[in-house]
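Input sequence (234 aa), recorded before submission:
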Amino acid sequence: MDPRLAQIPFPYPESVVADCPDLASLRAVIKRLPCCATNAAGTVQADPLNAVGVGQLADIGAALVRRDYRRDARESDLAQRVFGREPDFVMRKQAQAGAPSTWIRGWLAPIRFQGQLVYVAQVGRPVAGRFAPRDDPHRILHENVDEARNLLIQDMMYSGGLDKLGFANGAGEALPTRPRTTLDVATYYTDGLRVVLFFSTRPRSLSDVDLLDCVPYLEKRDTLQSGASRDSRQ
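Predicted structure, token format:
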């Protein structure tokens, strides 16, 4: 694990931390989180917050590093603000030949679940994927943010550090007819779901990971697909 990650988390006063004793209360708090990051002034909507991580920082960091994510903040990352601050950490998974691939921008949230820290994150990848220029400091978000989120799920399943996962609402309206505009004049569409990943210390195999029936992901997608307009580019 990158030792610089030990400098996180952001120290919230105890008076503002929501302590969730069960999954129902955690889902309710996650749903009330902002749908998206903003610019520094809070006046322009930025990328959607489509993932939540629950667990000790060392366990989350170890799972990411095992899947080739490394700490790597760019100018475009630091322009994104949640809770009025820049990301607490930015990690990127490098594709073949060192090309930039999936990124994770994370912020410690004022939430605890059964004593565990809770992070909210934006998972995305650049337009052109692994073919994007390596030295370009600006990254335009690829419109299919759900695919980037699902690729993270696969990575964490294979990391050996995932205990359980589920989905929660809160990442914006489901499949808007017109894609939303972000800071970098990119557009995106989403099913509106956040993945909630629970991390553990001891290694776990794929068969050990518990799938929580919080928001039925497949049923929701089937319903949305049948009613989506062509303009949504699903």
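Checked by second reader. The CA atoms of residues 220 and 226 lie 10 Å apart.
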